[in-house]
Amino acid sequence: MVSPKIAVIGAGINGVSSALAIQEKIPNAEVTIISEKFSPNTTSDVAAGLIEPYLCDDDVNKIIRWTKATIHRIQEYMAEGNDGAEEMSGYWIQSVKEVPKWLEVMKNVNVLSEQEMKQIAKRPEHKFGVFYSTWYLEPTPYIKWETEKFLKNGGRIVQRKVENIRELDKDFDVIVNCSGLGSKKLVGDNGIYPTRGQIIKVSCPKVKHFFLDDQYYALLNDSTITLGGTKDQHQWDVTVNPKLAQKIFEGNCVNVPSLRSARILSHHVDLRPSRATVRLEIDSKLGKLVHNYGHGGSGITLHWGCALECAALVEQLVAKRAKL
Ligand SMILES: Cc1cc2nc3c(=O)[nH]c(=O)nc-3n(C[C@H](O)[C@H](O)[C@H](O)COP(=O)(O)OP(=O)(O)OC[C@H]3O[C@@H](n4cnc5c(N)ncnc54)[C@H](O)[C@@H]3O)c2cc1C
Ligand SMILES: CC(C)CC(=O)C(=O)O
Prior knowledge:
Blueprint: E1 5-9, H1 13-25, E2 30-35, H2 43-46, H3 60-79, E3 85-94, E4 107-111, H4 114-120, E5 128-137, H5 139-152, E6 156-159, E7 174-177, H6 183-186, E8 193-203, E9 210-212, E10 217-220, E11 225-228, E12 232-233, H7 242-255, E13 263-274, E14 279-282, E15 289-293, H8 299-323
Parallel strand pairs: 1-2, 1-7, 2-6, 3-9, 7-15
Antiparallel strand pairs: 3-5, 4-5, 8-11, 8-12, 8-13, 9-10, 10-11, 14-15
Helix pairs in contact: 1-5, 1-8, 3-8
This protein binds flavin-adenine dinucleotide and 2-OXO-4-methylpentanoic acid.
Flavin-adenine dinucleotide binds at residues 9-15, 34-37, 42-44, 46-50, 161-162, 178-182, 186, 197, 199, 270, 272-273, 293, 295-301.
Protein name: FAD dependent oxidoreductase domain-containing protein
Binding site for D-dopa: 217, 272, 297
Domain FAD dependent oxidoreductase: 5-312
């Protein structure tokens, strides 16, 4: 049977993961990743890698399904002894009492008692909190690991910006769009917009727990801590704002006083590809096109669940074409 030719646009975590999942689902497929930028220069590389739904208002049952698949994937990745992924525990402190349904995917979940809140709260608005364990997945080493597997499977990589999806029609049987915020222009999706996020990477080995409240976060990675966070919708400016950096640092020091002794390593800004829902579907108008973009602040968290479902949609299209 003739091998189906699949193009995947985008080389962030969703593009590379979808390409790999397609190879694993359709072993005789010839998969090519076509992207303007590659890791470590994608939005995915800026992510702190916390596994937790954030700035993503999709159906919570879908979010839970996708997150569970990602957690299982991370455990496989960790079992190989790879760096950049580990369980981490910490505090989720909020100003309103609300226990999100997605907490069911976390481990060691403990809603803090009034007594415990008195010890943990650092601000008057810290009214409610949960202690739990989750995972982190540092995107850059993970994308490298996935890319190596993709190439070993015979995958191809092309560096270029796709101006019009139709350019790919003649050379590919199925096209997968994982262009993130690029979808605004590439497929004319006015439902996708940037949510600007600024972070600081610091070194502070004595901090052993994450701490997240309504405004700030301190998230662990192998050897750094990522301090956030801003979430400015429809802001396209990716230059580091020093005043904001100071606010992020000071705000996190109030929550985690030990951070006062942190060594600042670097500052970063990037734009979350935000949308009312993740667009994971076969494009009804363009037939041979599958979309997998718009993951907001949760692209690392949702990636493998979305990649598996994207591959299943591609398999549907390949099967349909084989019958023609
Ligand atoms: C500061 C910050 C912190 C974050 N922290 C977390 C976190 O802790 N946990 C979490 O789950 N998520 C986090 N996120 C969100 C996460 O980073 C994104 O949801 C995720 O990276 C989206 O991945 P993607 O592959 O869809 O898009 P991207 O990483 O943006 O990749 C898009 C790719 O498409 C390519 N492309 C675009 N247009 C074209 C075109 N026309 N032609 C060719 N190629 C094109 C780009 O070059 C790029 O390779 C964070 C985001 C930010 C900004
Ligand atoms: C998980 C969050 C605390 C971080 C994040 O996802 C973001 O800043 O987009």
